[in-house]
Amino acid sequence: MNPMQPTAQTPTPLAEEGRKISRAARRRVHARELRVRRTQRAARAQLPI
């Protein structure tokens, strides 16, 4: 087992088919993904060409 990987966390909510992810949790995940993409895009815009 890789010690760098957290054990309690699955890669995606869809990986746990038995557990229903709540709508609020799904919105939080989606909002975080959007935030990450926005910051990555802003960071790339700052790079010299």
Account of the 3D structure:
There is one protein chain. The protein is an all-alpha fold and 49 residues long. The model has no long low-confidence stretch (mean pLDDT 78). The protein starts with 22 loop residues before the first helix and ends with a helix. Helices cover 49% and strands 0% of the residues. It is built from 1 helix and no strands. The chain has one helix at 23-46. The longest helix is centred in the last third of the chain and has 24 residues, at 23-46.
Query: What distance separates the N and C termini?
Result: 41 Å
Q: Which secondary-structure class do the elements indicate?
A: mainly alpha
Order of helices and strands: H
Total helical segments: 1
Largest sheet: none
**How many strands appear in the DSSP assignment?**
0
Keywords:
mainly alpha; 49 residues
SSE inventory with pairings:
Elements: H1 23-46
Short summary of the structure?
The chain is mainly α and 49 residues long.
